[in-house]
């Protein structure tokens, strides 16, 4: 079964794209060199970007800059998002020092229906839908939508330039946190403290604590708990082991600590969660790979078509407003012309009257 997933590469034109629609699942940390646009199609998603945590709702959009640490976590069941990765090298032909550029783009409840965000949703949807058929017309439509997307972003959210020293410092911190994250992911079942992590990574505990908060928006212990919960949740769905054994196997000190952390994160106990699992939930793979949505999914298709039509309707309204403005301009122009003609008549009458009295 085909899924909403594709890659599009044109190296000679600096185009390297990956786009997909998927179910947002458990806590997932990531960083990469691509620009990433995330659009919420349904549900509610917690996104931590550059140390700032936001909860995005349906139709919200966020842009995650190149080499920026970020993490996502579904806040509601069946939360679905569209994501596109764009190699920033595509901006090289248009901007000097493109590697230092960054954008500030994140919708809010008050802004999400603005024309700028409506355009972005529409172009993203058009790109995805055009990939379902491999025809010359669809390829042209895809590239048109892609360049329109870039234009809309740089027009409405002009890029800023990061100072080179700041860029190098960020790279150093990213390297540090990547080393720390890898250690935690490998050793989460064991007892880990900030001091232990500092010694293993070569950084002092204060520095480790600071970069966790600044890049992930949560402290070290919260991150460790989320990783343990992620693995324990998987075990609940894929094994028949006792809940106590699952808790201890995944780094929790006892069943009480596991139950407390689980309920705080998911609003239910591990046993309640296990009872609610259905066959579809149990298909999640052991590596937490993304669960891409089928291109036959009716709800997603309807939503993407809706996004496209909203832009067309907005464009029509803009045209109608412009036509109305032109018509009003012509009306005013006619009025001004009428007043001008009347003034000319009055002036002519006055000149004739003055001439008459002068002749007398």
UniProtKB/TrEMBL annotation:
Q: Which UniProt keywords apply?
A: DNA-binding, Transcription, Transcription regulation
From which domain of life does this come?
Bacteria
Q: Which CDD domains match?
A: cupin_RmlC-like
Q: Where is the HTH araC/xylS-type domain?
A: 178-276
Segments passing through the bilayer: none
Q: Which Gene3D superfamilies match?
A: Homeodomain-like, Jelly Rolls
InterPro entries listed in its UniProt record = Cupin_2, Homeodomain-like_sf, HTH-like, HTH_AraC, HTH_AraC-typ_CS, RmlC-like_jellyroll, Tscrpt_reg_AraC-type_HTH
SMART domains of this UniProt entry? HTH_ARAC
User: Which named protein is this?
Assistant: AraC-like DNA-binding protein/quercetin dioxygenase-like cupin family protein
Species per Swiss-Prot/TrEMBL record: Clostridium punense
């Amino acid at each position: 079964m085909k899924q909403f997933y594709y890659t599009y590469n044109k190296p000679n034109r600096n185009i390297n794209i990956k786009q997909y629609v998927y179910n947002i699942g458990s806590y997932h940390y990531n960083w990469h060199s691509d620009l990433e646009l995330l659009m919420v199609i349904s549900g509610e998603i917690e996104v931590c970007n550059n140390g700032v945590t936001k909860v995005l709702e349906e139709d919200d959009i966020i842009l995650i800059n190149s080499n920026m640490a970020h993490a996502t976590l579904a806040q509601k069941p069946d939360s679905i998002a569209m994501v596109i990765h764009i190699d920033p090298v595509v901006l090289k032909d248009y901007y000097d020092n493109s590697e230092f550029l960054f954008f500030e783009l994140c919708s809010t409840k008050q802004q999400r229906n603005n024309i700028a965000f409506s355009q972005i949703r529409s172009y993203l949807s058009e790109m995805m839908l055009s990939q379902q058929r491999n025809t010359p017309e669809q390829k042209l439509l895809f590239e048109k939508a892609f360049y329109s997307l870039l234009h809309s972003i740089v027009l409405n959210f002009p890029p800023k330039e990061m100072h080179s020293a700041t860029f190098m410092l960020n790279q150093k911190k990213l390297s540090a946190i990547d080393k720390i994250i890898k250690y935690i992911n490998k050793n989460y079942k064991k007892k880990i403290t900030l001091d232990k992590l500092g010694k293993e990574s070569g950084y002092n505990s204060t520095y480790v604590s600071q970069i966790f908060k600044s890049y992930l928006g949560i402290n070290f212990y919260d991150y460790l708990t989320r990783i343990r919960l992620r693995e324990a949740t998987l075990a609940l769905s894929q094994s028949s082991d006792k809940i106590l054994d699952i808790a201890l196997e995944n780094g929790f000190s006892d069943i009480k600590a596991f139950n407390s952390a689980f309920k705080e994160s998911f609003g239910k106990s591990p046993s309640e969660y296990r009872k609610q699992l259905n066959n579809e939930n149990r298909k999640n793979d052991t590596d937490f790979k993304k669960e891409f949505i089928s291109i036959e999914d009716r709800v997603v298709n309807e939503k993407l078509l809706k996004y496209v039509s909203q832009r067309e309707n907005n464009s029509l309204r803009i045209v109608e407003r412009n036509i109305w403005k032109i018509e009003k301009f012509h009306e005013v122009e006619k009025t001004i012309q009428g007043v001008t003609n009347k003034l000319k008549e009055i002036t002519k009458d006055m000149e004739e009257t003055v001439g008459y009295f002068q002749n007398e």
